[in-house]
Design goal:
Elements: E1 2-5, H1 20-28, E2 32-36, H2 47-53, E3 56-58, H3 61-67, E4 70-72, H4 79-82, E5 90-93, H5 101-110, E6 113-116, H6 131-148, E7 170-174, H7 178-189, E8 193-198, H8 201-211, E9 215-219, H9 222-231, E10 234-237, H10 252-256, E11 263-266, E12 287-290, E13 293-296, H11 306-327, H12 329-335, H13 337-340, E14 343-346, E15 349-350, H14 353-359, H15 366-370
Parallel strand pairs: 1-2, 1-4, 2-3, 4-5, 5-6, 7-8, 7-10, 8-9, 10-11, 11-13
Antiparallel strand pairs: 6-14, 12-13, 14-15
Helix pairs in contact: 1-2, 6-7, 11-12
Length: about 375
């Protein structure tokens, strides 16, 4: 199969769909790989590194799309990229379609087969292709929150760790999954006063067992969450429903109750965000204020740590990507029900039910696509 890797063009997105190491694996399986020039520069990979791995360097994204059958990316295709998709293309990347009707419409019109990293499942539960970026984003959320608590960035001037004689910051983490767990680890490491909210009792038990007295694992009710948010210096939104819009768990009224200069970090912004006051921002313009509360809602947070993120992502996506290229997408999905859950768009149809529900579009079962 001819596999293509275009350079990412989303704002401040430095990651790359395939590292040179991954390219070498595809080539060893007998596939041809074409890479847009400078695609790997953001992770320290030069064009010559890709050539040594067996890839061919092309001058433009248009050449990559024209040449390749399988397109491997990191972030959702931007409008100019979507215009280059054709029915014969297999797109393998993050999509996050539920809150993005324009992208959904374009992918439907393209006729391409689109597999989303974020809805591929695992035998033991969880989302294996989302997990490494959730780990990065969870850890980064506390670093970003700590930065914007500075007075110089309109924060309250609160040091997350405190100092002897001065209390540490109150950090509230909403959601005890991969993002929330990693956020809590960072916050606990900084000696913050940490509370983690979730509704899954097994998750709360796991968190309590791991952190002990260093963090509080609390059942999430609207009353308990309202009180915790009002007292917080930093709130991290880490709630995910695979494929669907994130639930709006923090209302605008709750934001109004927060202390001036407090900070919220919405890691769920890719799926629409879990704060009513959230709107997607970029690394160029990462924050805004609502009722005196600083909002950090960057939609591609891990892109800031591109080298770590790209290699972690490739470690997860490579086996599935090789299966798609080796077998063809249809046979690969027939052989692996968990990979099949990644199919979001096929032949102009939506094959992911939460996406269809979020946008009030017709849903086509996977069985029809794989028949």
């Amino acid at each position: 199969m001819r596999v293509g890797v275009p350079k990412e063009i989303k704002n401040r997105e430095y990651r790359v769909g395939l590292t040179p190491d991954s390219v070498r694996e595809f080539v060893s399986h007998g596939h041809e790989v074409v890479v847009e020039t400078a695609a790997g520069h953001g992770v320290g990979a030069a064009d010559q590194d890709y050539v040594h791995a067996g890839a061919k360097i092309l001058a433009t994204a248009a050449e990559v799309f024209e040449t390749a059958e399988m397109i491997v990316k990191v972030k959702e295709p931007q409008a100019v990229e979507r215009a280059m998709l054709r029915p014969h293309h297999l797109l393998y990347t993050y999509l996050h379609l539920a809150p993005d009707p324009e992208q959904t419409e374009d992918l439907i019109k393209s006729g391409a087969t689109c597999i989303a990293y974020e809805t591929v499942t695992a035998a033991g539960g969880g989302l294996p292709l989302l997990k490494p970026m959730s780990e990065v984003a969870g850890r980064m959320s506390v670093l970003a929150g700590a930065h914007y608590l500075q007075k110089a960035t309109n924060g309250a001037g609160v040091l997350v760790s405190g100092v002897p004689g001065v209390a540490p910051a109150n950090v509230v983490v909403i959601g005890g999954g991969v993002v929330g767990f990693n956020a809590a680890e960072m916050a606990v490491g900084l000696q913050a006063n940490v509370s983690i909210f979730d509704r899954n009792l097994l998750t709360l038990e796991r968190i309590n067992h791991h952190f002990g007295a260093e963090a509080r694992a609390l059942f999430s009710t609207s009353a308990a969450l309202s009180q915790a948010v009002a007292e917080a210096d930093l709130v991290i939104g880490a709630v995910l429903i695979p494929g669907a819009n994130a639930p709006k768990l923090v209302t605008s009224k709750m934001i109004k109750s927060m202390k001036p200069g407090s900070v919220v970090v919405d890691v769920a912004i890719d799926q629409g965000g879990c704060f009513e006051t959230s709107k997607a921002t970029t690394h160029d313009d990462p924050i805004y204020e609502v009722d005196g509360v600083v909002h950090y809602c960057v939609a591609n947070m891990p892109g800031a740590y591109a080298r770590t993120s790209a290699y972690a992502l490739n470690n997860a996506t490579l086996p599935f990507g090789l299966a798609l290229a080796d077998k063809g997408w249809k046979q690969a999905l027939r052989d692996d029900a968990h990979l099949a859950m990644g199919l979001n768009v096929w032949d102009g149809k939506i094959t992911n039910e939460p996406v269809a529900q979020a946008q009030n579009l017709p849903f086509t079962p996977l069985s029809e696509a794989l028949a």
